[in-house]
Design a protein that fits this description.
Structural class: alpha+beta
Number of strands: 4
Oligomer: single chain
Distance between the termini: 82 Å
Strand content: 5-15%
Radius of gyration: 31 Å
Shape: elongated
Strand order of the largest sheet: 1-2-3-4
Number of helices: 3
Largest sheet: 4 strands, antiparallel
Helix content: 55-70%
Length: about 130
């Protein structure tokens, strides 16, 4: 074989080795996918157990209790941020706007204008009407 042909052959061999290495990465990826699928199957089995259902009910009751406590706390102070999204929370937000003229909802302080418009204040104090 000539030197040129030998160099070309070596180049092809190196490329083939690189392709094989990249296939190993794909095998690793496929292994991760298989693990995740197995975890999903186990979780699906667990979801059908009465223990899991009981845990979820307890968690839901804790969340509802926290929501009620949070809304009660928010009734007293219009600066308290309403963090939850529910019909009750929205009613409280509107009630605070009517009562105090301002209410913080999801991290944004909203104000009620004289004519009923709702606005926020910019950094330099201008009103940005939302509704």
């Amino acid at each position: 074989m000539s030197k040129e042909a030998e160099a070309t052959w070596e180049k092809w061999v190196k490329e083939a080795k690189k392709e094989k290495e990249s296939d190993q990465g794909e095998a690793t990826w496929n292994g991760w996918i298989k693990e995740e699928e197995e975890k999903a199957k186990e979780l699906e089995k667990r979801r059908k157990t009465p223990e899991y259902k009981k845990e979820r009910e307890e968690e839901k009751m804790k969340e509802e209790k926290w929501d009620k406590e949070h809304l009660e706390k928010c009734k007293l102070d219009y600066k308290e941020n309403i963090l939850i999204s529910s019909e009750e929370a929205m009613k409280l937000h509107w009630e605070r706007l009517r009562t105090f003229g301002a209410s913080m909802y999801k991290g944004q302080m909203l104000y009620l204008g004289e004519k009923g418009g709702i606005y926020t204040l910019s950094a330099n104090g201008t009103r940005n009407y939302k509704y």
